Amino acid sequence: MDALTAAQTAARLGVRTETLYAYVSRGLIARERGAHGSLFDPLEVERFARARRRVTSPSHGAARVAGADGSPLAVIDTDIALIEDGELWIRGVPIDELVAGEGEAPRFDAVVRWLFARTDLPPRDAPPLEGPGSAAASRVLAALPPGAGAFSRLLAAVAALAADDPERYDLRPETVARIATRLVAGLVDALPLLGSEKERIDGASTAADMSVAARLWPRLTALPATPARVRVLDATLVLLVDHDMAASTLAARAAASARAHPYAVVAAGFGALDSALHGAVSVAVHALLRQVQDGADPAAAVATATRLGGAGIPGFGQLLYPDGDPRARLLLQVMREAADPRADAALRLAEQVSAVVHARTGLHPTVDLALAVMALAWEMPADAGETVFAVARSAGWCAHAQDEYGRAPLRLRPIGHYVGPDAADLQRPGSNAR
């Protein structure tokens, strides 16, 4: 099993090496002596890190200690997502009630419209979202390098759709709602079709007749869509539409506070989302599951992923849900209900890894694990989870923008605390502080 050095372990725990060795001397964490110094078991380090978080971190919504748990800049009012008692609510509705049941029509399109309509519940008969059909955006996307990845295409699509929309600076609520629905659908349309589904999508079925999930499916995999598979993807989109004040959402709201138009708000969110610690976590989880699929010992694969990631075990331990991420639980359940042999095989791999992690650390799966399972099950690219995340969360960011436009402009402007050289030192002759 790959082990962590003392320096890597101290960095993971956010302490100095002296403090780490104090933990060792007190019997709080074990070490092994290697030829080049002390070595630490990555899973043991994660267990210890989790135990420290429980002691030092107050409940969600209160001020937290600086470090791995994060230090909130401010408490920002939001009427979109609520995380309470280990559950996620969207506009006062439990997230599980927004996910389509077996045999029901996809719900994501209705949920997006509902975010802006502010009715009690999403309508059951909402029409699918329609893209703008922008010829300018198509030309921009056609000019991208052949190897441009999905996320790069989404970034380019946002800029192109903005340039082709004369309403983009109209920040009235009803206009923001129209922009949001066109933008979400436009992002899906920006992705190339794959495999044999291309003929069916381009021919007999038109995009206007299909849900976002149904249109997105053939852009993620060449495997044929089935109602059960589309339901899984639709549930994923719903579960990722918003999640409190994540780093990307804070970036998006800050842009909206400065009265950036909705496309720029989404671009700001994309900038923070495109990170190995945020939107792309599922890429690392996918690599972990592939190792186990290829025959690696689950414990060894987890240790390797932990050592390479440097920020915990990818796909496990969502700080806001000590008892488990409800989004992961719901999405994995919908995958089981699909009764798809490919999904069942991927779920078994995830269960092996989860058992090892939970036995050693007590950590539960996050939604990133579920995203990786979906991608692995149906032969999607490793970054498919990030793509789905981006499409879904763009709707949530637009809802945050609509809310922020109704508040005082430029209110999300923190004050810097200067910690550089003293001004007097800068003026002293011969000073190196210049």
From TrEMBL:
GO cellular component, one term: cytosol
Entry keywords, A to Z: Acyltransferase, Transferase
InterPro entries: Citrate_synth-like_lrg_a-sub (IPR016142), Citrate_synth-like_sm_a-sub (IPR016143), Citrate_synthase (IPR002020), Citrate_synthase_sf (IPR036969), DNA-bd_dom_put_sf (IPR009061)
GO terms (BP aspect): carbohydrate metabolic process; tricarboxylic acid cycle
Pathway info: Carbohydrate metabolism; tricarboxylic acid cycle
Enzyme class: transferase
Any one Gene Ontology molecular-function term assigned to this protein's record: citrate synthase activity
Known EC number: 2.3.3.16
Family matches, as Pfam families: Citrate_synt
Xref: PANTHER family: CITRATE SYNTHASE, CITRATE SYNTHASE, PEROXISOMAL
Recorded family membership: Belongs to the citrate synthase family.
Protein name: citrate synthase (unknown stereospecificity)
Organism, as annotated: Microbacterium azadirachtae
Taxonomic placement: Bacteria, Bacillati, Actinomycetota, Actinomycetes, Micrococcales
